[in-house]
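Input sequence (337 aa), recorded before submission:
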Amino acid sequence: MNVLGIETSCDETGVALYNAQTGLLADALHSQIDLHAVYGGVVPEIASRDHIRCLLPLIEQVLGEAGIKRPDAIAYTAGPGLVGALMVGGGMANGLGLAWHCPVIPIHHMEGHLLAPMLEDEPPEFPFLALLVSGGHSMLIAVRGLGEYEVLGTTLDDAVGEAFDKTAKLLGLGYPGGPALAALAEGGSDTAYALPRPMLNRPGLDFSFSGLKTAVMLEVKKAIAAGELESRRADLAASFQRAAVDTLVGRALKAAKQERFERIVVAGGVGANKLLRQEMASRFEGKVFYPRLDFCTDNGAMIAVAGALRLADATSATEIRAQARWSLDTLSVPGTD
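Predicted structure, token format:
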């Protein structure tokens, strides 16, 4: 079975073709960073229009590279995400499904992320703990099997990726802020500022990053008042990154011990952070799995592999599904709905 994956939940247009036996055949990704950089964030209407412009050419490119005329099934991101952007991908998937007489499979965006390591040569076995960290999500998921998910903890305010971006903006860095902040932090001291590790020593497994962001804002104001912001930017970036990573790793280790997991999957855009990978590897006694760096951010390959694993959920192309909010723990084992 050749499954075409379509990802349009936010500001990346991703398309990939995955074969259930031989693996990934082709993938392509178009980023809208340059379009949104001038606004300092994603503009939903612009995102939707650019998906319309790019999606069909990317599909033609991927099928051409794979030497396939049409897939056997089409998987698309049905949520969560920007509704207009989701409608573009869902509309294309269902339209092509009707034209090609092939079924479609609506996919949960975050399930795509937690299954992205299945694309690697050494995929994780079930069960495992998933730490999903991105601009819109910070979640700890107990993954007992495909479709068997329990949300152990989530963010009470900002997602960690959002906190990275907002802190980068405070420091005068460009968009997207996360990679720019991580690069700046390499030249700074991560002990220069005693920033808080929110929720780390409290009961439960939830996250909170608004207090950390506020603490950085106060230090930035002090530095500006003293005329020293430029000389302190790298130290502020490094201290913030260290506090954020300590929080993520501390919560993940607590969850793994509590639920007795020997494997952790780290996925999502923040999963590409070098310090996070180093700290998780050095502090966790079990094995840690990641997608390759190209598949940490939104991409079509993760949707394609999720579709291949959910072929039992394939339906005829009759309804476009697009959900701005969609809880991961409402999913079920494939073929049981």
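Checked by second reader. The chain has a mean pLDDT of 95.
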